[in-house]
Amino acid sequence: MKKVVQCVPNFSEGRDLDKIERIVQPFRGKEGVKLVNYEPDKDYNRVVVTVLGEPEAVKKAVVEAIGVATEEIDMTKHTGQHSRMGASDVVPFIPVKNMTVSEAVELSKEVAKEISERYNIPVFLYEKSATTPERENLATVRKGQFEGMEEKLKDPNWRPDFGPNTIHPTAGVTAVGARMPLVAYNINLGTTNIEIANKIAKAIRHSNGGFRYCKAGAVEMPEREIVQVTMNLTDYTKTSIYRVFETVKMEAKRYGVPVVGSEIIGLVPMEALVDCASYYLGLEGFSMDKVLESSLME
Predict the structure, then answer these.
(1) How far apart are CA 170 and CA 213, in angstroms?
(2) pLDDT-derived band of residue 180, with 50, 70 and 90 as boundaries?
(3) CA-CA distance, 209 to 123, in Å (whole number)?
(4) Does 183-297 carry CATH code 3.30.70.670?
(5) DSSP three-state, residue 26
(6) Catalytically active residues, by annotation
(7) Residue 115 gets which letter from DSSP?
């Protein structure tokens, strides 16, 4: 049986569509690789790409795409609302079918080694691939962002797992790792007050005593005249979408601010949406077994 891995590389370009097309081109027309989705965001100045395929084929395509991003993106000129430390900012591998987390970890290490050697980019391993507990959390690895990485790499505790001990002058630093599926979820607030979004993010994220499997921050969306509470739900079976959504609505009410929408970035497991449908419709005994598409996939 074929092994299937998902990769969701995040590149620090969300405005120049020509550059984005060149970056995603290595994922097109390749045997064993399927470009599922890519979503550029002008405010974040970032594009999230989702690909599926056989491990070796995905590995080759990812390495090629990182090479294009290294040529196309100059981090010394990059600005955006999302935290970032490199042109190819983060490259997670997620086991999907007939593949273990351990195999995804080994794949991430192979990619990290190859891009460090081929493009002279320092690479940190994170999440399940992390070499120390301090490097498991991407936010900790990325702290300082591109502008602070040169100084950070001088600290012996932050020597890269692969590559040189200095940043790439224009491509910065990359994080590569393996993880389980997560839900990238953003909730829009009908205000331009970023402090309100910051307070709500602080209330719900695990690091400040909120939901165990929620990482959250605040982002301004000036073109839309709103702010976002942006989240990664790292285990949707234990911290569900609907629970976070209802909590954000409740917290926003304290400040007289409405929730005006939400969005999912990239792909989402069907089970996470079934969980929401069951909650909001008050369905009794509902499960994935009652989803038509789930039966067709078996």
Answers:
(1) 33
(2) confident
(3) 30
(4) yes
(5) helix
(6) 82
(7) H
For β-strands 123-127 and 174-178, DSSP reports them as parallel
Residue 230 main-chain phi, psi, to 5 deg: -100, 135
CATH fold match for the domains 4-178 and 183-297: no
pLDDT of residue 292: 80
Q: Is the pLDDT of residue 51 over 60?
A: yes
Total residue count of the chain as it appears in this document? 298
pLDDT at 154: 94
Q: Using one digit for the tens of pLDDT, what is the confidence trace for 250-266?
A: 999 999 999 999 999 98
In angstroms, the CA 173 to CA 154 distance is: 13
pLDDT score for 287: 86
pLDDT of res. 78: 97
Angle at 226 between CA 44 and CA 281, to 5 degrees: 100
Say whether pTM exceeds 0.85. no
Distance CA 91, CA 119 (A): 15
Reading the block at residue 37, the tokens are: 């989705």
Query: Cα–Cα distance between 116 and 213 in angstroms, integer?
Result: 31
Domain boundaries defined on the chain: 4-178, 183-297
* Amino acid at position 142, single letter: R
The pairing of strands 174-178 and 214-221 is unpaired
Please, what is the average pLDDT of the chain?
Answer: 95
CATH number listed for the domain at residues 4-178:
3.30.990.10
Question: b vs e for 261-296, b when ≥16 Cβ sit within 10 Å of the residue's Cβ?
Answer: ebeebbbbeeebbbbbebbeeeeeeeeeeebeeeee
Tell me the C-alpha distance between 123 and 88, whole Å.
10
